[in-house]
Amino acid sequence: MLVAGVDVGSVATKVAIIKDDTFFFRAAPTGWSPRQAGAQVLQDLLSELGFEKEQLDFVVATGYGRVSLEYADKRVTEITCHARGAAYLVPGCSLVIDIGGQDSKAIKIDKEGQVLDFVMNDKCAAGTGRFLQVIAAALGNDVSELSELAADKMPVALNSMCAVFAESEVIGLLASGHDKGEIVAGLHHSIARRIAGMVGRLGPSDRVIFTGGVAKNESLRRCLEDVLGMEVVVPEMCQMAGALGAALIAQGYCDEGNSVKRANRKTMTSNSTLSDAEGYQNNIHDSTHVNKKEFEVI
Ligand code: ADP
User: Fold this and answer.
1) Are both 212 and 246 inside the same structural domain?
2) For residue 286, what pLDDT is reported?
């Protein structure tokens, strides 16, 4: 059985392929065209593995760009896919905190990864991955450097969490001689407090998993632990949770006998290259192969 989950996010497009007992992952910047990115990343991973698109038994699309993937057999919401992927990555977790490029969500789940309840902030950019990218750029850094900058620093109190005003405030704080790390620590604390507010609306939880690209920020993870007063687990494949969940859902459809081998998944091919113009510098471009049973990168 060969199935795929495609998560077309606002910043990155992630693909998970399950072939029998092995998972394969690939990600690249979404760029300006979700449709093109969703086609290209899947095609690249299939080519690398030596498969043809016609061999796919089922494809589930998720993420904000899922509607543009005409080749998908099913479109499923991010909430459902993240919940499913998270439950697989950290068995027994009861709460998922996901922070992606343009939204943040807290999802209460059961043991099977079914959604019980959720709170989502997709109305404002504050505290999202893109917001952190903007702040990192204002500081002259890459988003991947924020964690180290903030490590063991006393947080500066920030008045504004609006993406536009926070950038000006950060520039003002820099001008008045504040340490970069203390500013970033202050931002992390503001984000953690906002997330804690969302989590609080879902009632008590005992095991928390943090997913999405922003979960790679270790200082923010620690901040969340401090504010929530409980352990927050970040799995190695944190950014892949949505794609993984989509692939697992695709696998479920096949197990129920719904294989949809399409002779002509014609809209998948694309000759254009993806835009890296937004400066999303991140070494997620290489495919990662993961053995399903052990989850070790091989
Ligand atoms: P989306 O699904 O909306 O595209 P992702 O879950 O892929 O979002 O997360 C993208 C965000 O992850 C980026 O905006 C960036 O802030 C963050 N990110 C990516 N890589 C790193 C990293 N190495 N360290 C810290 N943050 C990162």
Assistant:
1) no
2) 42
